[in-house]
Amino acid sequence: MVTPDTPNGLFIGGHWTIGSGRLFSVDNPADGQVIATVADGDATDAAHAVQAAASAATGWARTSPRRRSEILYTAFEIMLRSRRELAELIVAENGKCGADAGAEVTYAAEYLRWFAEEAVRNDGTYTHAPAGGTRSIVRRQPIGIAALVTPWNFPAAMVTRKVGPALAAGCTVVLKPAAETPLTALSLAKILSEAGLPDGVVNVVPSTDPAVVVSTWLHDPRVRKISFTGSTPVGRLLLHQAADRVVNSSMELGGNAPFIVTRDADLDQAVAGAMIAKFRNSGQACTAANRFYIHQDVAAEFTTRFADRVCGLRVGPACDPDNQIGPLINAEAVSTITNLVDKAVQHGARIAARATCPANSTGYFYPPTVLIDVSADADILGQEIFGPVAPIVTWNDERTLLDHVNNTETGLAAYIYAGDLQHALRLGESVQAGMIGVNRSLISDPAAPFGGIKQSGLGREGGHEGLHDYTEIQYLSVDWP
Ligand code: NAD
Fold it and tell me: What positions carry a catalytic annotation?
């Protein structure tokens, strides 16, 4: 819920400002109503944010790791204390159901705790040269000012997954959240400030002109890092821009996760996992199961049970706590998914199950849907659906299965449900994805390296790797006669 205390300005150098004075409105996807107006950052504001980050950079890099850790830990505690308010804010601007929003706040806060712990373990090495005569010291130093760009689907977690490691490493940041969901990011900046973060270490510039803001940052010689989460086309564009100044780049891009069920899988577990992998966040997750490959011997049984669960899903605004599926982010998303499903049906797919949407709603709802008889080369299997639609394909030959599963450039996540664990692991090693859930569908974990292979991204967030993404290695060769 938006309250008079919800920040809606630009956050630059520790101050709230309206910058150029332009404003934009934020809508609630559950009813299309305006919930807030927010300062709309431009190129001048973007430059001011870099200036603030530059002024704070040396002090923050020299702040002891212990102190950086304490600030992150305090912010983690404030986030948990504010869990209900933050979840309500996420519901208001993103539309996801209350349970998903609450889970996101906890998950997002855990990145701050994890990186509070990592901040004091930014280890280097001290070694003897094999030939003697020198000692080698290898240390990790903060990479410098980091430009962070986040999407709307996890308005809190995508921010803390970048801000946490950047601050732990000693970097200052400029952040541009998605224009659909700027309020959560601004509230997180407020929390970090309350936790004791010095002015200028985190600066937030919401904008309806992301290209201008981000390109201002990428062309500023003081910015040394871009970390982007969003679609593959925009990621590619930013990589081109980053190339001009050889800016260190981390990319968390689109997915197309296969969900594989083998003949000996526990079907209760597989169906429960399918519900999570597909319908969490109304299917608007980069890790969402995008295509279901079910062994032909169990396909009928799996489909019956899955369809039954899908028909029972309650779709509607989060103000009713019993609703499990919220709206999509906007009308365009509804239209894209409608077209994808219509096209699949024109090419022979059948709707095996469909939940009911609220009648006469002005919100952007799309009914959870199960599609069967989907041909293995259908468009809907090759494209990120980003919504609550589950296309099912049956398989019986493992080699053909793997050909289909790996026939994508977006290898972010995959799910395998199998009775024989060794079989599952063997399959997993053959699937071209950065993250694989084996008999489980919640794979995101602050303590693990999140990221994709092929065109799904570069670098990893979370785990020990997440901190490394914000550091640069320096090696000192010391004469040792
Ligand atoms: P998007 O690429 O449209 O937008 C992401 C961010 O980039 C937003 O902040 C947006 O304002 C900004 N942006 C848009 N155009 C830009 C430009 N020309 N220059 C600079 N910035 C620009 O993506 P989206 O629709 O917000 O999010 C959905 C996509 O994000 C999906 O493809 C999803 O898979 C992906 N995603 C990936 C991960 C991951 O960790 N791999 C996580 C969440 C979402």
Answer: 252, 286
